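Re: your question from the hallway

Yes, I did run it. Sequences:
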Amino acid sequence: MATLKDVAKETGLTVTTVSRVLNNRGYIGEETRQKVYDAMKKLNYQPNEVARSLSKQTTNTIGVIVPHIRHPYFAELISCIEAAANERKYKILLFNSGDRDEKELEFLEMCSSNRVAGVILCSGTVEVNQFEVLSVPVITIERNPEHATASVECDNLEGGRLAARHLIESGCRNLIHISGVYGTSMPADQRETGFVEVCEEHGIRHCELKTNEMQYKEGDYRGFIEEALRDHPEADGIFASSDLIAAQAIQVCARMGIAVPERLKIVGFDDVMIASLTTPAITTIHQPIREMAELALSLLMEAGAGRSVPVRTVLPVRIVKRES
Amino acid sequence: MATLKDVAKETGLTVTTVSRVLNNRGYIGEETRQKVYDAMKKLNYQPNEVARSLSKQTTNTIGVIVPHIRHPYFAELISCIEAAANERKYKILLFNSGDRDEKELEFLEMCSSNRVAGVILCSGTVEVNQFEVLSVPVITIERNPEHATASVECDNLEGGRLAARHLIESGCRNLIHISGVYGTSMPADQRETGFVEVCEEHGIRHCELKTNEMQYKEGDYRGFIEEALRDHPEADGIFASSDLIAAQAIQVCARMGIAVPERLKIVGFDDVMIASLTTPAITTIHQPIREMAELALSLLMEAGAGRSVPVRTVLPVRIVKRES
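Structure:
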């Protein structure tokens, strides 16, 4: 591969001059500039970002750690983070932790060795004091913020309230909440709090069911939902804590002969692609995923530049009424 | 951040000795080794992968370029590529092209500047002679192979045949094929060829409809499907060239009062998460995505080591019968 030296040799200029053209530094005559460009083209010279990164002691790369790439929520989130990074001329290194703590630590170390400009962590609940080995900003999305530089969340509490209110206003009197389980406490737990609050306010019967880790990892909640509906034949409304769970609730209802939305209504959470692809399409709480990704990038840039940033930012949610 | 020099100073050893411990080169006594580890821990020393990459003139990073991260097929593919890369201690740099040629070129150049070990290209149909600027292997997945180092495809032709045969065996006599359009020729075009071949063999009426680029980019085929079903009220079977299209066909049928599968049967393609989440769940052609990702990584490693690799590999598909 052609080097800076080869370009210099080809043009008869010094390496310093060629480097000044490449980096747009100092005054360079038009003729010289053209000569360098011509030689670069002829030799197929490619600037070496690795060398540049070494001298700057950082890269224009951001580490992104998620638990499950194929999960529709994270696929959407990754897509939005990539777009926000690309706009700022940053690249993303993507890691899939499968929610295993040891993988998260390994990836954080890889991020550090590779001198990323920062990390966006959307996974797990690693012993966060481990972050202290990182000398770069760590922004969490929908994860507990202790020890991270800053956290970005959606208004999970209000989301739970909106879901309960919608079901009650639609005539439901016996509600079930099915929550994802993540082992430890998470911002998403607030969805249940908001849901319970509104049910109590209106004197509506409600029950909260927690799925287990195995179901979350496999992404299969069907057996759990069927059991829940057998145990609670009086249920006429379900608030599922993800669209993935809501989609499977629709399937279980179809198999059990329960008409949705006539006999039982379902509200999901996230508003990702799957919500608009089921039959009936899912009424859900919209998480502002694009805005959350944008904000995470901005916070990362600000913190990286040494400026102070808010440690916790909560963005608003809204209900999207479809057919379920 | 602590450097190799700091570790050497702390231990009283030379930089060369410390480096030998880190790289496991030559004979080092146990006591010396322990001394270096202790100092590394004390100083919170992190090896600098950037420096290592510069001296090796390559990185253990692979560029992955896809058209749409959030599309369930690509989300699954990325997940499998990440897993295969991680097993080999490689990282992935992820780029979303939106199928824009200029973005693909920009990303290929970024891959080159960042000295990736190779590129896995799952996007578009860039003027492939542009690849020649890359001095690393380029493996395509489900894209036309010209000028790439190697291409990995699934057996699209057989997939089309399997879909048509299944519909005909299930009693359908008026078939529609809805294909994704991608502007130019693609391996997926073979799905239609296989479908038509079997329809002709059995003397079954068939018609092939191509969606347009706008529908592909927006991921919304509903208007198109509705029109197709109005134009062809006799249709009793649809072969959709993706599960995404099949899911929307189910929605359109529900709205039009067409019972699936009783009055009209639907077969998708890909077998990604969405196929098992719709109501009814989608009967589909399984693409061996995990095996394709595994193979792409192996080919990349082989080609990177200077060994000769097959230019085109086609992996088998199978039908997964669900409810549609």
